[in-house]
Structure formats: structure tokens, C-alpha cells
Structures
1.
Amino acid sequence: GRELVKVVYVVLESQYQASMTAAVRQINKSDERICVETVGYLLEEIRDPQTLEALRKDLEDANVFICSLIFVQELAEKLVEVVQPFRERLSACLCFPSMPEVMKLNKLGSFDLTAITGGPLGSFAQQVKEVRQQALGGQGKKPSGGSFQDGLLKLVRTLPKVLKFLPGDQARDARTFILSLQHWLGGTPENLEAMLMRVAGQYVPSVASQQVIDLERIMEPVVLPDLGIWHPCSATIFDSAAEYKQWYEQVHLPMAGVDKDAPLIGIVCQKSHISTKDDGHYIAFVQELERRGARVICSYTGGLDFSV
């Protein structure tokens, strides 16, 4: 008696697969009126004609399609060729930072990038491309992959200012797209769970018509800062070394049995592994170093996520 929502997605790296799996597992465990089936593909996998055909077949009965970071031209063209015929039938099509031709596949109610001309929304796909080029050192600038997400978030934050100039339904749908993008950038299972529930509750007819999801209770997006200091035993991200040192020496080291004068090892982590909680390898590494008597400081940067 539960309403089934099928989600098909294509992502650049595997971290989002782990986070999406955890989000869907939580929805299927906790909600009595809706269940979600997901089928995920890594971008490089669709080079294989058989995998591309499998993606096509999965889209035949999908409700929602999601993709992100599709910046390889030949693969972008393949993806558009496969997804375009199903776009009108899909309840929602969410294409996050990607090539402009991929982002034009976006469809969320009345929100349609191909139908909006002028203003920040009309040129959103091109602006995303320009933000990425600047982050990667375009026009003679020094590459800075970590600036991509910062630049993208700044761009996203400007969009609500123009929503008041759009018709009611279009403003609502554009806001849902912006919230979905922020959930996606947040990357945690909780963010992705909220994104899926929000989209299903508003745009999948079998779910929306019965109003089985209380949209008012869905959490707002929570996005990690682009740079920070992380430790698996802390519930918060530290903004500075001084802040981290105070917590580490006063709270954690005594519990871990590590001397305050022990050798200090610095680790640079990939942000997407932390935000999606695909961090088991980091946790094991930190625990082993501390077990052997070393102090550890782990910084992360989005530069490792967006510099490829």
C-alpha cells in the first residue's frame, strides 16, 4: 500500500552513492506511506554502450532523474541524448552543476531553464559554467578548485532575490530547485533524504495528490563550510586551528590517552567524503594514528572535489 518513487541518478564520484543509499534506507525504514527505489550510475560508466542502454531502460519507469558534475563534453552529449526523450514523462528532472546543455534538462513543475529568458535564472546554466571556469583558473587566473562551491553558493544565494518577480507557481518551483541544489551540495544522507521527500511530495503525482508528505516538516538545507578542520569524534566543524586545539587538547586527548606533546600529523581530506559521510576510511586512519600515540589535525577542502 505504499507509494513507490523510482529515482535514477548519474554522478561523477561514488561518495554520493553511499549517501543516497543511506538516505533511501532511512526513508524506507521510517515512512509508512512512501518507499523509494534508486538506481545509480557513475559518469564514466556510461562510456560503455551496454551501461548506457541499461540507463535508458531504467529511465522508462523512473519518476525522478538527478545528475551532477557532468562536465565531460562527450559524456554530457551521451547523457542528453538518453535523458531528453524521457524528460516530459519524468515527474522531476534535477540537473545540478553541469554543462549548460545538461542543465537545460532541468524540469521541476513550472521551473524550466529552457523557458526562462533574461535575469539570473535565465542565464543560470551559463553562470555555473563561468563559475567553474574561474575556479579552475580560467582567463589566466590561478586554479582554485575549492572556490567552485563557494562561487556556486554565492550564485544560488542571489537567486531568491528574483523569485518575487516570477509568477506564483514558477517562484515556488524555482525555490524548490534552489533548496534541492543546496541539499545536494550539503551532501549528507539527511540532506538527500529531505531533498527526495520534498521533490516527491510536490511533483510525483501519486504522492502529491494524496498529500502523504508533510512538506512543512522537511528540514532546511545544511551545507558545510568550504574549508574547515574535521575530527570524527567532534560533532562540529572547526573554523580555526586555535578553536580545534582548544577542543582537542582539553577534551579529546585526555579521553584518547594521547600526550599533548606527541608528534602532530596533518591530513588533507576530500570534503565530499565528509559531507556525504562516506568517511569510514578517514575515521579508521585517524583512530589508528591516535592509537599509536600521535596527535592528528584533519583539514578538508572542496578543491579536491571540484578541481577535476
2.
Amino acid sequence: PARAGVACLCEWSFSSQSWHGPTPPYAKRKMRRRPGIAGIQQRRDASVAIQAVGEDAERQSVEAMRAQLLKFRNSLEQFALKHKSEIKQDPGFRAQFHAMCANVGVDPLASNKGFWTELLGFGDFYYELGVQVAEACLATRDHDGGLCDMTQLMRHVQHRRGNAAQPISEDDLLRAIERLACLGGGWRVLTIGGKKVVRSVPTELSTDQNDVIRWASESGVGSITKSQLESTKTNGAPGWHKTRAQTILDQLVKSGIAMVDDGDAKTGERVYWLPCVSKRNGC
């Protein structure tokens, strides 16, 4: 009966060797066409065309940007010609001018020759200022151990330049120190306890040494004692072991960064002064 049912549903033609009933699943799988060489080549051509369009758009964008930067640079040169005196005499105006130059990739200090040097004399100005900064730091190294507070350094350099000299700003000092850094010797501007300190010695401060200087700065007077480092109530001090506290203080004294004061009549305890953050700094 099952064979009769199948024969009723479909019939097989031996003459044409064709199937006139429902298409078997295996026949459907065989009917799927594989991608031919033409299809692969077509997709490849489309990918190449898309890549070419993208590269062309990128090239046009870069060219437009270069043209815009060139236009801005020309405008910047015209601006410098027009405001030459203000740039030379006004430190704040000069700092803003440097920021404008940096935005378009222009460095007036990159060379001591060329348009900017001839126009504004930046090369000679910052080289001269760099020499004055170095002289000030070297003169106070025995006092502060090679870490000079930026405010004190500014005052010292201004004193060396005299009242008739061109005014300077902190931005000018930073640029001069940046030029000194390429000479080696450890020249660098550090931020310790919220204050900028100029380092002029090739010595890297450890984390503990930085913490001691910061706590001394936050004390308001620029000094610290061994017992304060051992306490957990001193400006967030972690409560160091006495051996660790004494070791760090001795290191700071040996490097010249800290000074010893045994004249505290109130407690009789030795006080360590950090001239780079002390209000008594005579830089």
C-alpha cells in the first residue's frame, strides 16, 4: 500500500529520466550555484573603485588643510609685523602669540636664523634669558640643592636683568628652561605641592622625597620634622617607620635639597627646611 501511495503522488518517466514529484532536499542543495570568476572579479573591481574614491577624498582634504594652514601662517606673519612692538614689550601678549604659533605648527624658536628671528629677535632673547636662568640657579644651588621655586627664580632673574630690560613672564622662563634642557644637566620644571620648582641638577627625586617636599610645602612654612613623618596626622602623612623617615631626610640633606635646623627651642627636635618651598627662601 505504501508503494501504491507513492506511485499515486508522483510518477517517474523512464524515457526522460526526470522527476515529476516534489523536489527532494538533496536536489535543492545541488541546484545552488557557486560564485563564479566573473562575480569575484566584479566584487574586486568594486572594492578597488571604492578605495580609489576614498584616497581621492583624503588627498583633497589634506590639500585643503595645507592651503588653509598656509593662509593662516601668512596671516600670522602679517600679524607679527603689525604688532611687533607689543610682542617684544608685553609678556602676556608674547605668550598668546606663542600659543597662536603652536596651533599652526610654527616654532619661532626652532632656529636662530630666518624670518621670525630677523623680525622679532626671539632667538637671541631666549638664549640670553636661558643664560640668566642658569646663572640664577647656579648661584642658589648651595642654598636650595638645585631646586629653585619658580616665583623666586623669576624675582632673581628680573633683578639680574635690571629695570631697563625687556619685561618677562613665567611663560618666557618656561621656554628658556626648555631650551636649556637639550643641554643636559637635569634642567626640568617640576610641580611639587602645587608649586612649580626648577630642577637644575641631574638628580631624579624618589616618590618618598617628592612626598616630603610636598608635605613641607603644605605645612605653610616649608619645613618638616621626623616626628611629623612618623605621625598620620601631618598633612596626610602615612605614618612612616622611624628608619624610613630618617633615611629620606638624610638623603635630602646629603643632596643639598634640605637644610638642618637644631635651634627649635619649643620642642628641641631637629627641623628640616626645604628652601625650594620655604617662605624663608632667599633665592
